[in-house]
Design the sequence.
């Protein structure tokens, strides 16, 4: 294990003074290697804090260039970076935190062809991407190599974070067995996103990486943290690989669901969006807000099949997993994508 230099002892003194970190913990950070996939809204704060904390080897994978619309939320970049490769622009910023740290760039997108050779160079992988193809490619490759994957996603004013630890059978496919159709899921490009949300969720990701390296604190392995930047409500839900084995959960494409609802408007529809979202626009049914689900669950009829809907399919799937374990004979349908467009 590489020891700290005299300069590093001074630079990281405030961290070293923490009893939970100390010299040994800072050495762990110096000897750790982390790959950040996606140098956008989530990736920028992750990269900054990992570099500033003293992580010794950082990889940046992204095939995109900086656009002027990126700058409000991708806070590593300035107007002068427009047109540059994100990986190179990010590297030029974070390498100044510690000149002895190693910054490796991969100026292309992660694919099935290159994923294995890239992730094998790092201990921990951080998914800061915004498309399902890359997410599932990363997930499956990390599962094969048993590398921890720190995952996050954002939607308008909400975000979620989890850690997939494949040694304990936690996986993206635990939450979402099948890859949704990207065209059914609204993106930040079409819906927009609040820039501070990117920073908050990115910091949660960086925090999880540091806890994994230092082996301290309570990790989000097997748990999902959701955060709403408008209400400041946050919740942590546990999940298990048991959910992937349940046969009573069915995923329905948003368009197929619209067709179903048109032909049968009296289905047992449960809308798990927050109350203000439901009042603004809904398809009928019963509103049982995700944030208060534990208290309002008894309102749901379990005598007939349940159809769960939210803005993107994330929250409805989490609730579906919970209900499926509790009611193994109940047929549960979770809608994938946004049916409120």
Sequence:
């Amino acid at each position: 294990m590489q020891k700290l230099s005299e300069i590093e002892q001074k630079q990281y003194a405030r961290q070293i003074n923490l009893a939970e970190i100390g010299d040994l913990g800072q050495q762990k950070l110096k000897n750790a290697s982390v790959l950040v996939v996606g140098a956008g809204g989530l990736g920028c704060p992750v990269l900054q804090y990992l570099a500033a904390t003293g992580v010794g080897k950082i990889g940046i994978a992204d095939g995109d260039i900086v656009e002027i619309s990126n700058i409000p939320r991708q806070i590593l970049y300035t107007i002068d970076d427009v047109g540059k490769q994100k990986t190179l622009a990010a590297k030029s910023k974070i390498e100044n935190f510690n000149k002895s740290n190693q910054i490796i760039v991969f100026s292309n997108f992660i694919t099935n062809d290159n994923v294995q050779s890239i992730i094998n160079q790092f201990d921990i992988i951080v998914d800061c991407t915004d498309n399902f193809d890359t997410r599932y490619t990363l997930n499956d490759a990390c599962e094969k190599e048993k590398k921890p994957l720190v995952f996050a996603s954002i939607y308008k004013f909400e975000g979620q974070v989890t850690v997939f630890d494949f040694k304990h059978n936690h996986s993206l496919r635990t939450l979402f067995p099948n890859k949704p159709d990207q065209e059914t899921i609204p993106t930040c490009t079409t819906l927009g996103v609040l820039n501070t949300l990117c920073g908050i969720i990115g910091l949660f990701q960086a925090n999880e990486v540091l806890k994994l390296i230092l082996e301290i604190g309570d990790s989000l392995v097997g748990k999902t943290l959701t955060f709403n930047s408008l209400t400041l409500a946050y919740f942590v839900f546990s999940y298990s690989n048991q959910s992937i084995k349940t046969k009573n959960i069915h995923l329905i494409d948003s368009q197929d669901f619209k067709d179903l609802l048109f032909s049968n408007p009296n289905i047992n529809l449960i809308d798990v969006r927050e109350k203000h979202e439901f009042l603004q626009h809904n398809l009928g049914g019963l509103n049982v807000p995700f944030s208060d689900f534990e208290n309002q669950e008894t309102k749901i009829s379990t005598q007939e099949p349940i159809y769960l809907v939210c803005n993107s399919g994330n929250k409805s799937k989490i609730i579906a997993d919970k209900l499926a374990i509790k009611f193994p004979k109940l047929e549960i349908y979770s809608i994938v994508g946004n049916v409120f467009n």
Remarks:
- The CA atoms of residues 48 and 206 lie 9 Å apart.
- The first helix runs from residue 6 to 11.
